[in-house]
Amino acid sequence: MSRAQQQDALSRTALAVFRLNGQFLAVSERLAEPAGLTAAWWQVLGAVLPEPLPVSGIARVMGITRQSVQRIADLLVAQGLAAYEPNPAHRRAKLLAPTPEGRAAVRRIDPGHAELAARMMRELGGQEAFDETVRVLERLSRALDAIEADAPA
């Protein structure tokens, strides 16, 4: 593959991912709105449903800045959808945890989320194709992580 072809492939990949990001944000806003959430609030709550995390941990999982997550976390706490808890591993970095109200809000999204997942699976041609799509996207993300880790500071 020529250098020009490689650059074209990278450009097409980036444009596709940027478009996907916009599409996912738009559909997430539509799904989250009836539950009284925004897509960003849903993302942050979703990150802490399995276990409470510090803001920096949420930012790492989501691939966004700590400051962005901090702003959303503070809004979730102010709305009673999440709470800060002590962090036994770090006195100053509190853990963010969903409240029962936050968990209930996310549960209200579940029917629309399930329907979208089923429709996506059908559009992609079945569960195997859906799983392969996820594997390719995760591989792309790991490749970019490796490239960034090698980049000079």
From TrEMBL:
Annotated Pfam families:
MarR_2 (PF12802)
| Domain HTH marR-type, residue spans | 7-142
State the source organism's domain of life.
Bacteria
Report the SMART domains cross-referenced here: HTH_MARR (SM00347)
Q: Which InterPro entries does the entry mention?
A: HTH_MarR-typ, MarR/SlyA-like, WH-like_DNA-bd_sf, WH_DNA-bd_sf
Q: What is this protein called?
A: MarR family transcriptional regulator
